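Researcher: I'd like a structural prediction for the single chain below. Treat it as a standalone chain; there are no partners to consider.
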Amino acid sequence: MTGLAGRHVTFGEADMADHLDRLGRAAPDLHACVDPERARAWARLAEADDFKDDFGADGAGGRGSSYIRAQARNLTARAQGIHHLLSLVPARTDRRPAVVVDVLGGDGLVRRVADARGLTGLSVLTCDASPYMVRAAWAAHCPALVQRADRLLMRGGSVDAVLVAYGSHHIAAEDRAELVHEAYRVLRPGGVLLLHDFLVGSPMETWFQDVVDPYSRTGHAFDHFTREEMGGYLTKAGFESGEVTEMADPYVATAATAREAELELGRYLLDMYGLAAIERRHAADAARHTVELAKSVFRERRADGSLESFSAAYDPSARSWTCTLPRTAVLAIGRKSP
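Model: Treating it as a single chain, here is the predicted structure.
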């Protein structure tokens, strides 16, 4: 879930060679999908381009350290949505694991959720434009590769699924069509593109505009998607079958008491989005303030017109409370003909 705004970072051919060597040793099946010439060419361009990294270390002007801390604190916060996305990856007929390119993979959250939930039959390659995030993914034992979303380094027809989720709005509007074209190129026949984000006008957009942008250490001024935009990308890229639908993708936190679960949710959101200004202003009450802000924003309209809002539920078998903030994501599903 990373973008290219923030501190300038260089990444060159020597770095790419090191990543590819490590990938070859750790995951030969994933390494075989990479086009080495594309990788070398992109590394030369990145070295000359001096791109920016919003998700570098906190001390270097990014918010990557706090993002990693959030995932370590609560691996299951977004697990429901991740599980649903991975359930849409088609199984291979030869019984080999389906190769999933997690384009905005950050520190490997999707792969770690898949492992924690026992989702078999998947081989996930964590990719990101941020070298800091990719190093963190390797540290979490997730095979990873630095690459841009609109310049995929995979061979044509080499992967079973391309997942673009949890940060798609960071991709500039002028690069989105190329991203979808690239996904079509690298997919095997029968493969699927899963393009996930949040709609213009959604509570998630409000959260980014009213909370993350003013209070995060990096800001957050990005354009979200419309249904028509997403569907248009699928058609123009050549996907023979495509649909744009919605899916539940809540934030969740669990603890021994309802109050503790609420505060865990607040702390997760503080770290997830690097809300440094809230921490400075509210100190020990920052988590409480953040979850109260989130409660006021994340109110989803159901089909019957009623509102779905923050909830807390007790599980007597686990003797724990689970607090949930509802979110509805939009999902474009492009299927390449077999």
